[in-house]
């Protein structure tokens, strides 16, 4: 018995020594792994591994935004580095810089052809970065917080940005557009509201940005919510700001983008604590008209012929009207199916092929659109009428659009704001060459957004800040 115990002790000691050795080796292996990371527009290219140790072995290449993680064979000759994966179409050829902290070369892939990329040595994988994103240390105060909505009973997670050394300041609540977004209003790596909050704070204006329902630190069911519910969320944010003694809530305003502009209009029409409103590409027309304008502009951006656009919109508008006329709580899909069948029977085969409703594709359309059409959010939006809200707004208002915006075409929307708003202080600005996300664009299509490194046009940031400050009475 004693001999067995001694033997077990010896084995246990050997096991501990082995495990320690294994941990040491694992640690050394992990330490030797190096990350080389570059970026082209919205895509990161990440090479993982130690090039000096594994010159001809397989290393890993990741393109996270395309959900790609593949092995590549790497070759190092002097200061030249190349890697490729023939099966998946990768290739890269480059050279070290003088201190070997970066590799400059040409990356090739189907979505990223013949692209100059600089792979910099990093300790860990870095998020997408754009030059307008602010860097620490910030010259203003940033406070991450959560608070409870008294009426909605939801927990809200947000970031308050306050100018340094100021006890009095205007404060803007930032409201994101359609879709579920984080507080920074991140799209394709670009942090729209982070850049806006940074610019405002540097010019003496505070801001609050909050995660959408069901995202980040905010609770709630986003899918079951309407634009009206999102307006309730803004009401809760205003109520919270008024109760926090550390915050100057005497000059609160709203800055809404796209659907956020509609939300700002709803809240500003009823809440007397709102002192100013800025609508960036905000919806100023009815929901039904918005669908017509938006879809027409998007179809034209694909260079379809006038005939195809007209026929497509003829069909779309029939579908929109069906949804508009459907009672709350009822599905629009049965009536949509009947109306679409009637319309298709009047069209020739060439037309149906041109608008992609040939060979059973009408069933795919009905399935996809039907799911959206029955959502509470869609029903609320399609019944939106600006005349119910805009005439009640008497505070200073700024409305802005890019003239290349195809999501919220500028002319009709701005004219509608001018028609219905009763405020004596209205500023309307149309920015040449800017798309829906306030980037200077070239083709100005929806897909081009990810190819533009600009996050937020500087002239718009400047105009927003100056406009607010001109109306702030200390």
Please give a handful of descriptors for the protein shown:
globular, 12 helices, 474 residues, alpha+beta
Helix content: 25-40%
Gyration radius from CA atoms, angstroms: 28 Å
Give the ordered list of helices and strands. HEEEEEEEEEEEEEHEHEHEHHHHHHEHEH
Q: Tell me the major beta sheet.
A: 8 strands, antiparallel, barrel
Note the total helix count: 12
- Which blocks of ≥5 consecutive residues have pLDDT under 50? 1-7, 13-32
* Strand arrangement in the largest pleated sheet: 1-2-3-4-5-6-7-8
The number of distinct β-strands equals 18
Mean pLDDT, as a whole number?
Answer: 91
Cα-to-Cα separation, first versus last residue: 88 Å
Principal-axes shape call? globular
Q: Given the helix and strand composition, which structural class is it?
A: alpha+beta
Strand content: 15-25%
């Amino acid at each position: 018995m004693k001999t067995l115990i001694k033997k077990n002790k010896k084995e246990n000691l050997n096991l501990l020594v082995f495990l320690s050795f294994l941990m040491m080796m694992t640690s050394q292996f992990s330490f030797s792994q190096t990350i080389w990371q570059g970026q082209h527009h919205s895509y990161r290219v990440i090479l993982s591994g130690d090039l000096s140790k594994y010159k001809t072995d397989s290393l890993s290449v990741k393109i996270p935004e395309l959900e790609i993680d593949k092995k590549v064979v790497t070759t190092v000759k002097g200061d030249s580095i190349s890697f490729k994966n023939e099966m998946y179409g990768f290739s890269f050829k480059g050279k070290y810089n003088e201190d070997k902290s970066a590799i400059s070369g040409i990356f090739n892939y189907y979505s990223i052809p013949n692209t100059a990329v600089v792979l910099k040595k990093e300790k860990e994988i870095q998020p997408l970065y754009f030059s307008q994103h602010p860097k620490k240390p910030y010259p203003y105060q940033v406070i991450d917080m959560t608070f409870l909505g008294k009426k909605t009973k939801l927990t809200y997670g947000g970031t308050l940005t306050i100018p340094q050394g100021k006890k009095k300041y205007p404060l803007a609540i930032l409201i994101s557009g359609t879709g579920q977004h984080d507080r920074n209003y991140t799209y394709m790596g670009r942090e729209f509201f982070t850049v806006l909050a940074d610019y405002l704070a540097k010019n003496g204006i505070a801001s609050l940005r909050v995660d959408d329902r069901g995202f980040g630190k905010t609770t709630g069911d986003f899918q079951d919510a309407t634009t009206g519910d999102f307006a309730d969320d803004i009401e809760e944010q205003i109520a919270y700001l008024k109760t926090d003694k550390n915050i100057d809530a005497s000059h609160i305003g709203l800055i809404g983008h796209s659907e956020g502009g509609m939300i700002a209009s709803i809240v500003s029409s009823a809440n007397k604590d709102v002192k100013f409103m800025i609508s960036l590409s905000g919806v100023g027309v009815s929901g039904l008209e918005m669908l017509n304008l938006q879809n027409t502009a998007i179809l034209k951006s694909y260079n379809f012929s006038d005939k195809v656009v007209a026929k497509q919109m003829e069909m779309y508008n029939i579908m929109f009207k069906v949804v508009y006329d459907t009672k709350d709580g009822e599905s629009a899909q049965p009536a949509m199916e009947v109306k679409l069948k009637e319309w298709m029977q009047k069209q020739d085969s060439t037309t149906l092929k041109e608008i992609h409703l040939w060979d059973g594709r009408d069933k795919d359309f009905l399935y996809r659109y039907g799911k959206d059409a029955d959502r509470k959010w869609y029903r609320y939006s399609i019944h939106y009428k600006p005349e119910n809200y805009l005439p009640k707004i008497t505070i200073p208002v700024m409305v802005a659009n890019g003239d290349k915006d195809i999501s919220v075409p500028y002319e009709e929307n701005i004219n509608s704001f001018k028609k219905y708003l009763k405020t004596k202080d209205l500023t309307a600005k149309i920015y040449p060459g800017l798309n829906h996300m306030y980037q200077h664009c070239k083709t100005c299509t929806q897909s081009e957004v990810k190819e533009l490194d600009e996050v937020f046009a500087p002239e718009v940031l400047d105009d927003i800040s100056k406009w607010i400050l001109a109306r702030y009475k200390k």
